[in-house]
Design brief:
Keywords: Oxidoreductase, Thiamine biosynthesis. The chain is about 30% helix and about 30% strand. It has about 350 residues and is of the alpha/beta class. The protein has 2 domains: about 200 residues, FAD/NAD(P)-binding domain, CATH 3.50.50; about 140 residues, 2-Layer Sandwich (D-Amino Acid Oxidase, Chain A, domain 2).
């Protein structure tokens, strides 16, 4: 049986492990912390192929392909793991607070409609009829009925459980010392605990991927971009839709939790929560949903998004035989989880992926 070692046990690593173990391979995951404890659990979970992607092109098509798989993927994971991933399908409202934002929204809607995607252009009254919690200041909104969301903490737990039930082995705290390569082919991974031989190695280390010793030269490096999020408690829930704006987003959970985010801070591996960051996030959310002013503060945190210099993920085979990369997904990691796992499985098994990954070659 071929052995695959996966470096990183966030959503990407666990999702790849799930698909590879399902295919009958022996899979070991190496994680410096615990599965899903870093960027995966810090995300908001918006499946925003339309609301979060700036324009048409290969990356947009990859996001659409992954979003289209997510409903069935959520059901599959829940059935296998016994963990509900909190899949919600009420849709996303992109709010325009002034005429300039309204013009940008109209232009976005135009090319999406030309692409044949569902998007509704709403004036103020129509938007507030759909979501009464929205501010009266808004000039209008776009409604994306096919952009949904999940709970990333639950998704991380479900993926780890699914992989484990299929036989994947987790080694938490066993830090990677080097990827071992001989004659242009990967031979395994050296860790603090010793050498782990492998026929295939998958790099899924998130924002830490470029820090892995022995990693060959890739298309670009991956750097961390911090994002601060605030969680409130609001019971009963006051609104149903994700509210997205040009400064941030507000995500409701069915149990009354509300997530507000997020900053974009290029400050290395610093995950500090700052007063300035909280002020910006809270101000953004109250501009769009003013009724949150009397909701109870629950917690806040900061996660590190894995960003590349060209804003495209690194997905596919490296120049080293047997070494694959699934990293650099930046703000769309949760959304791209199912398609990434599918691509890596197909490549490891020597099959052509169902989607074009040439633009994302490591």
């Amino acid at each position: 049986m071929e052995r695959v070692v996966i470096i990183g046990a966030g959503v990407m690593g666990c999702a790849c492990a799930h698909r590879l173990a399902e295919a009958g391979l022996r899979v070991t995951l190496l994680e410096k912390s615990i599965p899903g404890a870093e960027s995966s659990a810090a995300a908001a979970g918006i499946l925003g192929a339309q609301s979060e992607v700036a324009g048409p092109g290969p990356f947009f098509e990859l996001c659409l392909a992954s979003r289209g798989r997510f409903r069935d993927y959520a059901r599959e994971l829940t059935a296998l793991s016994g963990v509900s991933v909190g899949y919600e399908d009420a849709g996303v409202l992109e709010v325009a607070l002034d005429p300039a934002e309204g013009r940008l929204s109209a232009a976005r809607a135009e090319w999406m409609l030309e692409r044949g995607l569902r998007v509704e252009i709403l004036d103020r009254d129509q938007a507030r009829a759909l979501e009464p919690a929205l501010t009266e200041r808004m000039v209008g909104a776009l409604y994306f009925p096919d952009d949904h969301w999940v709970d990333p903490v639950a998704l991380s737990a479900a993926l780890a459980a699914a992989a484990a039930r299929l036989g994947a082995e987790f080694r938490s705290g066993d830090r990677v010392r080097a990827i071992e390569i001989e004659a242009g082919r990967v031979t395994g991974v050296k860790t603090e605990g010793g050498f782990l031989p492998a026929d295939r190695v998958v790099v899924a280390g998130g924002a830490w991927s470029s820090e892995i010793p022995g990693l060959p030269r890739l298309r670009t490096t991956i750097r961390p971009v911090a994002g601060q999020i605030i969680q409130l408690e609001s019971r009963p829930p006051r609104f149903r839709h994700v509210v997205y704006g040009y400064k941030g987003y507000v995500v409701p959970r069915a149990d009354g939790r509300v997530l507000m985010g997020s900053t974009l801070e290029d400050r290395g591996f610093d995950k500090a929560v700052t007063l300035g960051g909280l002020h910006r996030v809270a101000g953004m959310a109250l501009e769009m949903v003013p009724g949150l002013a009397d909701a109870r503060y629950a917690s806040s945190w900061s996660g590190l998004r894995p960003a590349t210099a060209d804003n495209l993920p690194m997905l596919g085979a490296s120049a080293v035989q047997g070494l694959f990369v699934a990293a650099g997904h930046y703000r769309n990691g949760i959304l791209l989880t199912p398609i990434t796992a599918e691509v890596i499985r197909d490549l490891v098994l020597g099959r052509a992926p169902a989607v074009d990954i040439d633009p994302f070659a490591p």
